[in-house]
Specification:
With 385 residues, this protein is α/β, with parallel strands linked by helices. It has two domains: 235 residues, Type I PLP-dependent aspartate aminotransferase-like (Major domain) (Aspartate Aminotransferase, domain 2), CATH 3.40.640.10; 132 residues, Aspartate Aminotransferase, domain 1, CATH 3.90.1150. Helix content is 38%, strand content 14%. The strands form three sheets. A seven-stranded mixed β-sheet has the order 1-9-8-5-4-2-3, sandwiched between helices. A three-stranded antiparallel β-sheet has the order 7-6-11, with no helix packed on it. A three-stranded antiparallel β-sheet has the order 10-12-13. Strand 4, helix 5 and strand 5 form a beta-alpha-beta unit. The longest helix has 22 residues. The two termini are 19 Å apart.
């Protein structure tokens, strides 16, 4: 079928947001350039305080990326060789990769098939004398079920680390992501709800000693200058990123509201086009605020990959987060897991599809996305007839 000649719908459009804030962003950049302080410095310090306050914690430690945030948190806890960290089998690779690079062993557990987050019921039987932490991921913008994890962590004297890279602003029982564990790891990758113009991240915590240690680790473990107390690395946050993030932060709540409205509109369009049996919509659990970093559907009947090809031919952006569960990744085969060990994760990897979502996405663009999905389904029905 020939590609549609109408204007496409991108998965994420950063230009619209830039044009809205262009003068403020450019003024922030010029302010940093004029200051001569382009790495760390007062812009980073101010952003750390602002993000910590937004999350409801005492301290923020800015760093180079969300991956750096995970690594800093793990190293602050001195997790290393011989230790184990429990984490979900279905998430972005950095969650497991950061554990592996400490020398510790990632121990996977399966997910709740409704939210795609860690299934608390499967965590406790993964705990051994070597377990040091539970690394819980708030995937796609909705918090994991934290209350049972709090109980498990307290019972076994374990630290709860939040991978909240996709969940800034999400809430659980009225508390924001980042304040639900001992340390919260954030990403400001450009497509996140609060995005920089390059890689950037932060760890938030209420513990002053961990915050101090992470600030030391991010500058090669240096304290004082050229005296290296810890074996750290370069994980600094640039002042340019911090300054631009400070411009964007006051708009975050509005953008989250827009994303929630867009998600509700997608739900209604799927229903209107009688696609509920074909596209399983995201479920919002009670007592949680879903921020929709992604709008992820399940595609029924093994049609996901064919639908992806159709949407791309129609110039409609989409993405598979994620096509493989972590235990299926080649570089993690040494852990000894096999196909069938985490069935909910494996099933999700074969069915999930993210549709376009960003705060400025229009109703007409959304209608085009769902109409294209409906056209694909009609085409499949005709072929089967």
């Amino acid at each position: 079928m020939a590609a549609n000649t109408e204007a496409g719908v991108p998965l994420c459009d950063l230009q619209v947001q830039y044009r809205e804030l262009q003068s403020e962003l450019e003024a922030a950049v010029l302010r940093v350039l004029a200051s001569g302080q382009v790495i760390l410095g007062p812009e980073v310090t101010a952003l750390e305080a602002e993000i910590a306050a937004y999350c409801g914690v005492a301290y923020g430690v800015g760093c180079g990326s969300g991956t750096d945030a995970l690594s800093l948190a793990l190293h602050a806890l001195e997790i290393g060789r011989g230790d184990e960290v429990i984490l979900p089998a279905f998430t972005f690779f950095a969650t497991a990769g950061s554990v592996c690079r400490t020398g510790a062993r990632p121990v996977f557990c399966d997910i709740d098939p409704i939210t795609y987050n860690m299934d608390p019921l499967q965590v406790e039987n993964k705990i051994t004398p070597r377990t040091r932490a539970i690394l819980v991921v708030h995937l796609f913008g909705q918090c994991a079920d934290m209350e049972p994890l709090w109980i498990i962590a307290e019972r076994h004297d374990l630290v709860l680390i939040e991978d909240a890279a996709q969940a800034l602003g999400a809430e659980y029982q009225g508390k924001r992501a980042g304040s639900l564990g001992s340390l919260g790891c954030l990403s400001f990758y450009p497509t996140k709800n609060l995005g920089a113009y390059g890689d950037a991240g932060m760890v938030v915590t209420n513990d002053p000693e961990w915050a101090h240690r992470m600030k030391c680790l991010r500058v090669h473990g240096m304290e004082p200058r050229y005296h290296h107390k810890h074996l750290g690395w370069n994980a600094r946050l640039d002042a340019l990123h911090a300054a631009m993030l400070r411009v964007k932060l006051p708009h975050l709540e509005r953008w989250i509201s827009n994303r929630q409205a867009i998600a509700a509109r997608y739900d209604a369009l799927i229903e209107e086009h009688h696609l509920s049996h074909f596209l399983e919509r995201p479920i919002r659990r009670p007592n949680r605020r879903h921020t929709f970093n992604q709008y992820v559907v399940r595609v029924a009947n093994g049609q996901r990959d064919a639908l992806v090809r159709h949407l791309k031919a129609e110039q409609i952006g989409c993405e598979i987060y994620y096509p493989l569960a972590l235990h299926q990744q080649e570089c993690l085969r040494y852990l000894g897991y096999g196909t069938g060990d985490f069935p909910a994760s494996e099933k999700a990897a074969g069915q999930v599809l993210a549709l376009p979502i960003y705060p400025e996405l229009t109703a007409e663009q959304q209608r085009r996305v769902i109409q294209s999905c409906a056209a694909f389904l009609r085409q499949q029905v005709r072929r089967a007839a």
